[in-house]
From TrEMBL:
GO terms for molecular function: lyase activity; peptidase activity; single-stranded DNA binding. It comes from Bifidobacterium scardovii. InterPro entries: SRAP, SRAP-like. PANTHER family: ABASIC SITE PROCESSING PROTEIN HMCES, DC12-RELATED. Belongs to the SOS response-associated peptidase family. Keywords: Covalent protein-DNA linkage, DNA damage, DNA-binding, Hydrolase, Lyase, Protease. It comes from the Bacteria. The keyword DNA-binding applies. Its EC number is 3.4.-.-. This is Abasic site processing protein. GO terms for biological process: protein-DNA covalent cross-linking repair; proteolysis. The keyword DNA damage applies.
Amino acid sequence: MDLDWDAIARQFAVDDDDVSDRLPPASYAVAPTQTIGIVAQGRDGRRHLNGAHWSLIPRWSASKTLSYPTYNARMESAQHKPTFAESVQSMRAVIPASGYYEWKGRRPFYFHAEHDAPLLMAGLYSWWRPNASAPWLLTATILTCPAAEEFARIHDRMPMLVPADMTGEWLDRSIDGARLLRPVCEAGAELSRALRFHEVAPLSGDGRRLIAPLDHSEPMSLF
């Protein structure tokens, strides 16, 4: 996640005065429960770009920690799961990213768009707080779909991508998202076939070096 947040705000016609102070700094090792940036439409009809806790917590949860992971939601079942159903209906987001990692066994691979254009991942969001006197926490999850055939040999799932010409519908709270899941998934699958990927070294620390292609010409140590 190494993005020009002001450019993202312009792309989505976000009319907030200043977005930078609410969004996370660049990172090449973003993990669940950390802060990610999301674009969403509020009840006021305006689009907002804000930081969100990466692991969706439904508003009815008594605890911030759930007994199951919620940083991803399967496109095929999200509308039927109590954790995600309300968000599918009217609280959908676009989650911009520079790229993402998938693992084949213990080997990480980095996936990204040509020329490193931002990926627009389909997401869901929810507001949560532990009690009535506590501040609200914005939380989010990334929807996943079956991996394109070219990438299935690395991993059988991938983030669902939202084509630029479908972001308006996807963010529109007045549209029931249940009817958008399949068409967005199918259109996003076409986009995903243009992604590039390469193997990277085992992830440690942070920095742009994490996405550098693994140099297979160097001898591998056995110890």
